[in-house]
Amino acid sequence: MQIPTTLLAQVDSSVGGKTGVNLRAGKNLVGAFYQPKLVLCDLETLKTLPEREFRAGLAEVIKYGIIYDAKLFTQIERDLPKILKRNEKVLAPIIARCCEIKADVVSQDETESGLRAILNFGHTIGHAIENSVGYGKFLHGEAISIGQVAAAKLSNRILKLPQHDVERIENLFRRAGLPPQIKLNSAQRQKLFSAMRLDKKVSGGEIKFVLAKKIGRVVWGQKVSPALIDEILSA
Ligand SMILES: NC(=O)c1ccc[n+]([C@@H]2O[C@H](COP(=O)([O-])OP(=O)(O)OC[C@H]3O[C@@H](n4cnc5c(N)ncnc54)[C@H](O)[C@@H]3O)[C@@H](O)[C@H]2O)c1
Ligand SMILES: [Zn+2]
C-alpha cells in the first residue's frame, strides 16, 4: 500500500508502480516495477507540506492538463488562487483527475515504449537540469517547470503550437510560483547537453521530445536538433 503525503506523490509517483532510489552516483539508479494493492491519498497530509514542495507538485498537475486534458488546464487557470490556498473542495477532484489520467495512460502502455512517453513532457530538459546544473538546487517540480516551458516554445517552432498557448503555459507556471526559465552561461549549457545525451531519448545526435500540438494534445518521439534547443534555452 502506498500512502503518499506530498502533492507530487499523490498525483504522480504513487500511481504506475515505478519505484526508484536515488544513489550518490545519480537519480533513480536502482528500482523496480511493483503495483501497489492500494493507494490512499489523504488530503489532510497536505496541510503541513512546505509551500515550496506544494508548488513543485503543481508542476505535475499542470502537466496533465497540457498532455491530456484541456479542460483541466483551463480549470487550473481559473481556480489557481483556491488551489494555492489548498482548498480541499477544489483540490480533491483535481488530484483524482490526475490519478485517473496517469492510470489511463499507464494501463494503455505498461512497457513504456509508446503512449506512456507523454508523461515525460518537460522531462527531457527537466531531468538534464536535475542531473547537471540544478543538482541539489531545483526540486523535481521546479526543473520540469523550466522543461515544460522550453518544450512549449519548441512546440511552437516545430508543431506550430499557437503563441497564445505558449504564453498561457508560461503564465500558469509563473502564477504557480514555479520557475519558467533558467539563465545559463555557455559552459553550463554544455553540461546540460551532456546530461541530455546521457539520457535514453537520443538518437543520431538528435534529442527526442514530447511536444504539444495544442493544450491537451501532445505527440512523442519528436526529434529536435541541439541547435534549436540551444536557441530556445539562450533566448
Ligand atoms: N516514480 C515516479 O513515477 C516519480 C514521479 C515523479 C517524481 N518522482 C520522484 O519523487 C521524488 C520527490 O518526491 P516528493 O515530491 O514526494 O518529495 P519527498 O518525498 O522528497 O518529500 C519532500 C519533503 O517534504 C517532506 N514532507 C513530505 N510530506 C510531508 C507532509 N505531508 N507534511 C510535511 N512535510 C512533508 C519530506 O520529509 C521532505 O523533506 C523526486 O526524486 C522525483 O524525481 C518519481
Ligand atoms: Zn516528473
Quick rundown:
Helices cover 53% and strands 14% of the residues. The protein is α+β, with helices and mostly antiparallel strands and 235 residues long. It is globular.
At the first level of CATH, what is the class? Mainly Alpha
Q: Count every helix, treating DSSP H or I runs of 4 or more residues as helices.
A: 9
Report the order of strands and helices: HEEHHHHHHHEEEH
Tally of structural domains: 1
Principal-axis shape: globular
Beta-strand share of residues:
5-15%
Mean pLDDT: 92
The percent range for helix content is 40-55%
Determine the structural class based on helices, strands and strand pairing: alpha+beta
Largest sheet data = 3 strands, antiparallel
CATH architecture: Up-down Bundle
Q: Spans with pLDDT under 50 lasting ≥5 residues?
A: none
Could you say which small molecules are bound to this protein? Answer: nicotinamide-adenine-dinucleotide, zinc ion
Rg (CA only):
17 Å
How many strand elements? 5
The name CATH uses for the topology is Dehydroquinate synthase-like, alpha domain
